[in-house]
Specification:
By secondary structure, the protein is of the alpha/beta class. The protein has one domain: Nucleoside Triphosphate Pyrophosphohydrolase. It is built from 3 helices and 9 strands, in the order ββββαβββαβαβ.
């Protein structure tokens, strides 16, 4: 395995882990018709030049879900390497809070993409995620997240490791 890959693009991402009053988690449903892949993940995306991770998270939640969020503590860090796309993501997942409970969640868009991948943005229950047949990123949201939540994220594993395609 090569450690230095100058041809690979490195991208830092910030995402929000937002729960509603029913302990359901806000996720964005993506569908890539070219790659024929469908997946769920928290709202988030890449940092822009000069932007810090918390600013990026707030901006991305607004773009993808149409709501204003406040940033909380760092919950998880996950790396993803796609050799096919020559891309190395470093993803940070922060707790997010929606201060206005009346603000409506809607499917937004990715301004940097011509063909939109976002299909839906809504809250999912623990049971829905446990029985989901599509990919969920990071995978910890399917089961371990709920245990960490019950333990108030005390002593939990922050670094989730590296995933490769």
């Amino acid at each position: 395995m090569r450690r230095w890959q100058p041809q690979m693009l490195f991208r830092v991402r910030a995402s929000a882990v937002i729960l509603n009053e029913h302990n359901e988690i806000l996720l964005v449903l993506h569908n890539d018709p070219v790659m024929k892949e469908t997946w769920l993940m928290p709202p988030g995306g890449g940092l822009e030049a000069g932007e810090n991770a918390l600013e990026a998270m707030v901006r991305e939640v607004k773009e993808e879900c149409g709501v204003t969020c406040q940033a909380g503590e760092l919950l998880y860090v996950r790396e993803y390497i796609s050799n096919n796309a020559q891309l190395h993501h470093l993803g940070m997942f922060f707790r997010g809070v929606l201060p206005d409970k009346h603000e409506k969640v809607v499917a937004g868009n990715d301004p940097e993409l011509d063909q939109q991948l976002i299909q839906e943005c809504r809250f999912y229950s623990r049971e829905e995620l446990k029985s989901a047949t599509i990919d969920i990123y990071p995978e910890v949201l399917k089961e371990q997240f709920w245990i960490d939540l019950e333990n108030e994220f005390i002593g939990h594993q922050v670094y989730l490791g590296q995933q490769r395609d």
